Automatic annotation (TrEMBL):
Protein name: Oligoribonuclease
Domain of life: Bacteria
Organism of origin: Curtobacterium pusillum
Region (Disordered): 73-96
Bias type Basic and acidic residues, positions: 83-96
Length: 96
């Protein structure tokens, strides 16, 4: 059993590892009396809303500050071409 106490509406810090949000943090609000096991983060990639899934790997609480570490799960995220594989798409949507 976890010794972390959190309630619906409490804020916690999410720390992201891997994927496009690697090394970033976000202040999130608990939606229940438990920490999220998984979160989905959205970003625009080439003009399209893209979903990235992260799963909880570790959580800690120091006094009233809670932080949760999340690891990127590419198999459960929207596919995105690697930057070096995108090439020139400047005319991709041109109509003749």
């Amino acid at each position: 059993m976890s010794d972390i106490t959190i309630h619906e509406g409490d804020e916690y810090t999410a720390i992201f590892h891997g994927g496009p949000f690697d090394g970033t943090t976000d202040t999130r609000t608990a939606t229940s009396d438990a920490l999220d096991e998984e979160v989905t983060v959205f970003a625009d990639v080439e003009g399209l809303q893209t979903a990235f899934t992260y799963k909880k790997t570790k959580a800690r609480q120091v006094l009233d500050q809670t932080s949760v570490e999340f690891e990127y799960v590419p198999a459960e995220s929207d596919p995105v071409d690697d930057l070096q594989d995108r090439g020139d798409r400047s005319g991709e949507f041109d109509r003749e």
